[in-house]
Structure formats: structure tokens, C-alpha cells
């Protein structure tokens, strides 16, 4: 199911991806392309009517694949470009400029670019490095590097990186050879589960292993596809398998994977609403902790079970805080529990953390998660209501404040938040402030002073600005 979800997301992304052609114009080009059985007109129309260069540099834009000829090579910097396909012979300085389009690191995901070479450009690249890879100092050329020495250095670095990862795993109770020497698929699965549980002692051990595995991955890619890499491939793949077991590619996949893991442990302990856009909406109030506690006591993978529970709770909390900034105190209290969990060194610390998280859910998180229903509001309106309410209000005044909260959010959605990137428009941001200012003037006069109204105007605008990016997806609460 998890693999299906990941593949579906890839398919959806490919389906929405736009491909454009960017080539320089020339006389009689329509007839020239027509003679080749091609129609350049729709592509030329895009090049003329749109700013394709700007769109391509926007990571969120569906224009993700471009076919160019002698365009966008020199002086064209797009760090998020990950892959380049070469199908024409190029050499020298032009080649160096071309491959540089994909070699920038970007965020945490892109650590290297990929060049797919259909024209045997690699041979030209080696020649180009001999010319452009050597700088001059005081008129003297530096000696050309010895490839054999360079490979020996890379092998030595990879060995050291693997050894550091091996020693770390040994420190948390797992021998990497158990995985690399596993003979059957069942043995490999068992070893992988054991390794994951060991690494999940707490968040710190998980992050430390990720850093070590990433380092091995970088050294591996630096050597690929040289023959010198072969003796280390099994260990590199084993470390990569543990890393992938810990990390899915998207946050939503992480959460749904954690939910499914908990579902495997105890039937009916947690429910999943598949209609949620992130793939899994966690109804923590439905957790059957008596069953979960029994399963936890019998489990041979307590670390992983606690880690999964932490992922689910943290994801839910982050979502709740995003929807309502006044819930930040809940998050801080949870962070204190997790800080103790991260400082733990053994299974007793894991057991204590499990019990503390269980109590936190029962006494704090579940009541807060159901408060909107108790107040007769949805989650979005509850956030506005919380920013407006005062502790001294009468029941009649509370009803009036709820009415103001509903009306304010309704008007903001209809007149401002429906627009994409409304925060970039001075006119729309001013309109948002005007709506908030005029609506909160309907609050009960006695409890609210002018100073109160001024402060609440700022708080509501700040919340709207940070919570709503604009567009159709903000008109309905998920």
C-alpha cells in the first residue's frame, strides 16, 4: 500500500508536468519544421506569450521539462534542475557550461545532478577537464592530477565512512554483517527490521545514523561506476536499505507509513481517513491504549513502535498548531517529553516515553482535538474565535464573538483568500486588514476596549497571513 501511494504520487506529478520547447527563431521556420513533419507554431506561441525562463525557475510550476537547442546554457542558473539529457556532440568550454546547469545542490533532497549522455560526451568531458580543470599560478600550470591517486583517496574516504556507520550501528546493538550476509529474503527482512529498531532508540540516534548513511551515499556516488567500488557495494546497499526504511520521500508518506505500522501492531487501535489529502488523517482520540500497551509490552521492536507513535503525534500536533497558533503551549509541553526521550540511552527510557506520550494524548491532545466540535465550530473558525475571546465573557457574549469569527473568516475567503499569492498584493493585504478591522468592531462593546481591538486585529491578520497562501485549496478546510 505504501509503495502504491508513492508510485501514485509520482504518476500524478508526471501527468501534470508540462514539456516546452525553447529554440531561437529563424526565417521560414514554420515551413522548415513542416518539411520535417513537425509543427513549431504552438511552441513558438508559448515562447512569445509566456515568460518561460521565469516559470522554469519556479520549483512549484508544472513546467518541469524543457527541450532546448543552444539556449539556456550559459548564464542560466536553476539550482533545482536535477537531470540533463545530452544528445548532441559538444566540447570544451560549452560542455563545461552545459553540465554546470545540473550540478548545484538544492535543499536537502538534491545532493548531486544526473547527466544522461546519448552522444558520448563523456570522452569530450575528460579532455575538457584537462584544459579547464587546471588553473595557472604565476604563469605556471599546476601538475595534472593522477587519476589513480584520486581513486585511492576516494576509496579510503568510502572505507572510513562505512566504518563510522558500522561502529555507530554496533553502539546501538546491531551488527551490519547480519544484513549484508543474510542469504534469504526472509533473513534480510528480519535483519532490516532489527537494524531499524536499533537505530530508532530515539530521535538523536535516528538523525545521527541518517547523517552517517548520507555521507556513505555521497562517497559511493563519487566512486560510481569505477571497478574499485565493487568490494563495498554490499555494505553501501545495506546502509541505504536501513536509511530508506527510516525515511520516506514525503512527510505525508512518513505519517501514513507510521500509521500503518501501528495498525499492524494492534487491530483497531488507530483509524485512518483516506480522504485526507496528505494520505492519512490521524484520529488520535480513537487510539485504544489498553491494546497498544499490551502490544508494546510484548513487542520485540519497542524502539520502532515508540518512534512511529512519536511521528504520528508530532504530525498531528504540527497540523493543529498550524491551524491554531494558540496551541503552541501544547507543542512545547510535548517537546519536553520528547527531549527526555531523546536523552534516554536504553529501553527503559523508551518505555517511559511511551507512557508519557500516552498520558499526554489522553489528558491534553484528545480533548483539544475535539474542542472545535464541542464549541459548535470548525477548526478554522475556532482559531479566529480563540484569538478574539476573553476569559470574562458571558454566554451571550461568547455567542456574539463566535458570530464575528464566522463572518470574518467567511468574508476573508470570499474577497481575499480566493486569490493566488494574495500576500504579494498590497491591495489585497490592505483589503484583508480592512475586513478584519470592520468586522471585529461588532464585538460586544463593554468587554472590548480600543486597545483590545487593535491588538486582536494584528493577531488575526498575522494568523491569516501565515496560515493561508491563497487559491482554491484554501477555500475549504482539509
Description:
The structure is a single chain. The longest helix is centred in the N-terminal third of the chain and has 25 residues, at 147-171. The chain contains 21 helices and 8 strands. The chain starts with a helix and ends in an 11-residue tail after the last helix. Helix 9 crosses helix 11 (233-246), helix 10 packs across helix 11 and helix 18 crosses helix 19. Strands 1-2 form a two-stranded parallel sheet. The chain is mainly α and 478 residues long. The radius of gyration is 29 Å and the shape is flat. Helix content is 61%, strand content 6%. Strand 3, helix 5 (92-99) and strand 4 (114-117) form a beta-alpha-beta unit. It has helices at 2-16, 29-35, 41-49, 52-57, 92-99, 121-132, 147-171, 176-180, 185-199, 203-223, 233-246, 251-265, 289-298, 302-323, 328-343, 347-369, 371-375, 379-388, 395-417, 426-439, 450-467, and strands spanning 18-23, 63-69, 83-86, 114-117, 136-137, 140-141, 272-273, 281-282.
Amino acid at each position: 500500500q505504501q509503495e502504491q501511494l508513492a508510485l501514485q504520487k509520482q504518476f500524478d506529478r508526471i501527468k501534470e508536468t508540462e514539456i516546452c520547447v525553447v529554440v531561437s527563431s529563424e526565417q521560414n521556420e514554420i515551413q522548415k519544421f513542416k518539411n520535417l513533419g513537425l509543427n513549431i507554431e504552438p511552441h513558438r506561441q508559448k515562447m512569445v506569450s509566456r515568460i518561460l525562463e521565469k516559470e522554469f525557475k519556479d520549483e512549484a510550476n508544472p513546467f518541469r521539462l524543457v527541450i532546448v537547442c543552444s539556449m539556456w546554457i550559459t548564464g542560466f542558473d536553476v539550482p533545482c534542475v536535477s537531470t540533463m539529457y545530452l544528445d548532441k556532440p559538444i566540447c570544451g568550454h560549452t560542455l563545461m557550461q552545459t553540465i554546470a546547469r545540473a550540478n548545484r545542490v538544492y535543499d536537502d533532497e538534491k545532493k548531486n545532478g544526473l547527466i544522461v549522455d546519448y552522444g558520448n560526451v563523456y570522452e569530450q568531458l575528460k579532455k575538457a577537464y584537462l584544459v579547464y580543470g587546471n588553473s595557472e599560478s604565476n604563469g605556471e600550470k599546476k601538475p595534472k592530477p593522477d587519476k589513480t591517486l584520486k581513486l585511492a583517496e576516494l576509496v579510503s574516504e568510502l572505507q572510513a565512512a562505512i566504518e563510522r556507520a558500522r561502529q555507530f550501528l554496533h553502539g546501538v546493538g546491531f551488527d551490519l554483517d547480519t544484513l549484508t550476509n543474510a542469504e534469504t529474503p526472509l533473513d534480510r527482512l528480519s535483519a532490516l527490521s532489527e537494524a531499524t529498531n536499533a537505530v530508532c532508540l530515539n530521535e538523536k540516534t535516528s538523525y545521527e545514523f541518517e547523517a552517517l548513511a548520507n555521507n556513505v551515499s555521497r562517497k559511493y556516488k563519487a566512486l560510481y561506476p569505477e571497478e574499485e567500488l565493487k568490494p563495498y557495494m554490499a555494505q553501501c546497499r545495506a546502509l541505504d536499505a536501513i536509511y530508506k526504511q527510516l525515511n520516506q520521500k514525503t512527510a505525508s508518506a512518513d505519517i501514513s507509513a507510521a500509521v500503518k505500522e501501528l495498525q499492524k501492531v494492534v487491530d483497531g487501535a488507530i483509524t485512518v481517513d483516506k480522504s485526507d489529502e496528505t494520505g492519512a488523517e490521524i484520529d488520535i482520540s480513537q487510539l485504544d491504549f489498553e491494546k497498544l500497551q499490551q502490544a508494546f509490552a510484548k513487542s520485540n521492536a519497542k524502539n520502532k513502535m515508540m518512534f512511529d507513535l512519536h511521528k504520528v503525534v508530532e504530525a498531528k500536533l504540527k497540523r493543529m498548531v498550524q491551524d491554531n497558533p494558540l496551541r503552541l503551549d501544547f507543542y512545547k509541553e510535548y517537546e519536553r517529553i520528547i527531549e527526555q526521550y531523546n536523552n534516554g540511552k536504553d529501553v527503559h527510557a523508551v518505555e517511559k516515553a511511551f507512557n508519557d506520550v500516552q498520558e499526554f494524548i489522553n489528558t491534553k491532545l484528545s480533548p483539544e482535538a475535539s474542542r472545535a466540535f464541542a464549541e459548535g465550530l470548525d477548526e478554522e473558525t475556532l482559531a479566529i474565535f480563540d484569538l478574539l475571546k476573553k476569559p470574562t465573557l458571558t454566554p451571550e457574549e461568547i455567542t456574539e464573538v463566535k458570530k464575528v469569527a464566522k463572518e470574518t473568516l467567511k468574508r476573508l475567503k470570499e474577497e481575499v483568500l480566493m486569490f493566488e499569492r494574495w500576500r504579494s498584493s498590497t491591495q489585497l493585504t490592505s483589503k484583508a486588514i480592512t475586513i478584519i478591522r470592520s468586522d471585529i468592531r461588532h464585538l460586544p462593546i463593554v468587554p472590548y476596549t480600543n486597545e483590545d481591538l487593535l491588538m486582536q486585529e494584528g493577531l488575526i491578520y498575522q494568523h491569516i497571513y501565515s496560515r493561508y497562501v491563497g487559491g482554491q485549496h484554501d477555500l475549504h478546510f482539509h
